[in-house]
Amino acid sequence: MGNYNSRKKVKKAKQEKKEKCPDLEKEKEKGRLVIYLKKNKSTIKAVLLPPLGKLSHCPKTLSLITLPPGSTVNIFGRSELGSRRGEVPRPPQPFPSSARLGAGDGDIQKMRRILTLFFLVESDKAEGGDSLGSKNQRWIKLRQFGGADNAMGKVAVVIDNGSCFTRAGFAGEDKPKSVLKTTSMPPTCPAVMREIPCHLTAAGCGTGGARASKTHPLRHGIITDWEAMENLWSHLFFCGLRLSPEERPLLMTDSPSCPTTNREKVAEVFFEAFAVPALHVANTGLLSLCSCGRVTGLAVEAGAGVSHVTSICAGQIWREATYRLDVAGFFLSKHMHTLLLKSSNDPQLLYALQKTTVTQVKKQCCYVSMDYEGDLQDKAHQFPVCFKTPDGHWITLDKERFCCPEPLFQPKLLDQNSPGIHLLAFQSLQKVPDECKGDIIGNTVLSGGSSMFPGFPERMCSELDALLHGKGYRIKILAAPKRSMAVWAGGSMAASLKSFRHMWMRKGEYQECGAAYVHKKFN
Ligand SMILES: Nc1ncnc2c1ncn2[C@@H]1O[C@H](COP(=O)(O)OP(=O)(O)OP(=O)(O)O)[C@@H](O)[C@H]1O
Ligand SMILES: [Mg+2]
């Protein structure tokens, strides 16, 4: 009798196990998050399968709910109805037609972010849904609603908004497909109106007819003219990438010192006006680290309109450890012109120099000195070079070569009373817990066009070394040759990761929670 009972128990356990895991392994392989509902009289059992196979055991029963066919279930974060992982599921409870079903701590807690999908229980058969397991098990995978989710499987678009250049391309690629001068706002072109591609160049739109007008929609990395930016983004989508924004999820960059309200506005614009299926807004500092395969480190960004230093630990950004410096490429180009006007070259020739030529001089001839005061005093430490202007004239540079980028380290040379970029980096490091400091300073990542000056990485290292002397930290500066594109490349890398799936803010989440949800969703 005992034998018969134990066999019966084993059989029952096997049957239960079979019932609990409908093709679980297959789903885990795909890294999918799926909700299964089991109909049993009037009770529906909701089972959550985690994404990325995070839980190695059988799915956890989140709660037992009574749900009449035809109800809309809004699965959305924590609620008093949900049972915690490991707890005994609560007995069946009445479930309103649109109520919250939640999860507890740990892995399931992490999943809360993605649980803003809408499922519709249409009938026992879950019309439109796929059945899993045999019919008598009656495990039903419910259909996800909304076209947005079809677009989620596609490669994401990555856009890096810069004060000088806006770069757009596809996740997983090593460089952006389309780079547009942010300052040359393209005119509204007929191609965009008709949703056909035009020939877009860095200077603007090729088929629009009208010339691009000069504006500065981004100042110090912060969007100030939204209309101009929307126009620019339209061009990037339709003419640069040649696709409609509804087709792909979008990762957008955000300057570290941007007011957080900017992110809300970005969500509003992209979900409302561009109808993207999903959005992620990422800090440029974090993306710079990502481009070097790091999530911990010190991001030192020197771009065109602004420079920043940001300490980041395990992907966590400390706002109070973020410092902004208003010395960057635009100001250095202007400074270059001022320095040239004081040089021994023909003043008439210098006054006639185009801005683009001055920028070329800066990029080709300048370097960061390891000993500014010493080199300034000693002529033997100044190495003259000649530069040929586009109209065939020659200009000579000597000390201007290292005087131009020096304001990055001594902003007072541009009448700014901010500390230099190395001191800001040091201050940023002071704001993080002691146990993180070593890891952060050991992964100092340079990014942005203005970090490309020869000698910049070495000077940064020697200045930090002097500031941290005797503290026992090992300073390591990561200066990739393509670091002027590091932010875009980091975004491309991050958005192509499978694990990035739960980082998207989906259209449904936006509709449900509004633009303010960006603060919960993004770091
Ligand atoms: N090789 C180089 N040497 C010095 N400066 C350079 C070099 N290449 C580019 N720059 C400068 O870098 C700036 C552009 O940098 P970047 O593309 O990182 O800026 P951005 O992303 O458009 O702006 P920001 O991030 O500041 O909003 C320009 O001012 C350009 O003159
Ligand atoms: Mg930038």
What does the secondary structure layout of this molecule look like, with pairings?
Elements: H1 2-20, H2 24-29, E1 34-40, E2 43-49, E3 60-66, E4 72-74, E5 93-94, H3 106-111, E6 118-120, E7 130-132, E8 139-141, H4 148-152, E9 157-161, E10 165-170, E11 178-181, E12 184-185, H5 190-193, E13 200-201, E14 204-205, E15 213-214, E16 218-219, E17 222-223, H6 226-241, E18 250-254, H7 260-273, E19 278-283, H8 284-291, E20 297-302, E21 307-313, E22 316-325, H9 329-341, H10 347-351, H11 355-365, H12 372-377, E23 385-388, E24 394-397, H13 400-403, H14 421-430, H15 434-441, E25 444-447, H16 456-467, E26 477-478, H17 486-495, E27 505-506, H18 507-513, H19 518-521
Parallel strand pairs: 3-5, 9-18, 18-19, 20-25, 25-26
Antiparallel strand pairs: 1-2, 1-8, 2-3, 4-6, 7-8, 9-10, 10-11, 12-15, 13-14, 16-17, 19-27, 20-21, 21-22, 23-24
Helix pairs in contact: 8-17, 9-11, 14-16
Residues 162, 284, 303, 448, 487 line the site of magnesium ion.
Looking at this protein, list some descriptive labels.
single chain, 523 residues, alpha+beta, Nucleotidyltransferase, domain 5, 4 domains, 21% strand, binds adenosine-5'-triphosphate, binds magnesium ion, Actin-like protein 10, Actin, ATPase_NBD
Structure description:
This protein has 523 residues and is of the alpha+beta class. It has four domains: 2-145, no CATH class; 151-281, Nucleotidyltransferase, domain 5, CATH 3.30.420; 297-326 and 418-479, Nucleotidyltransferase, domain 5 (2-Layer Sandwich), CATH 3.30.420; 329-412, ATPase, substrate binding domain, subdomain 4 (Actin, Chain A, domain 4, Alpha-Beta Complex). Helices cover 32% and strands 21% of the residues. It has 19 helices and 27 strands. Strands 5-3-2-1-8-7 form a six-stranded mixed sheet. The chain has a six-stranded mixed sheet with strand order 11-10-9-18-19-27, with helices on both faces. A hairpin with a 7-residue loop joins β10 (165-170) and β11. α14 (421-430) crosses α16 (456-467). The longest helix is centred in the first third of the chain and has 19 residues, at 2-20. Residues 18-148, 192-197 and 206-211 have low confidence and may be disordered. The structure holds adenosine-5'-triphosphate and magnesium ion (MG). Adenosine-5'-triphosphate binds at residues 162-165, 218, 221, 303-306, 328-330, 333, 359, 362-363, 448-450, 452-453, 484.
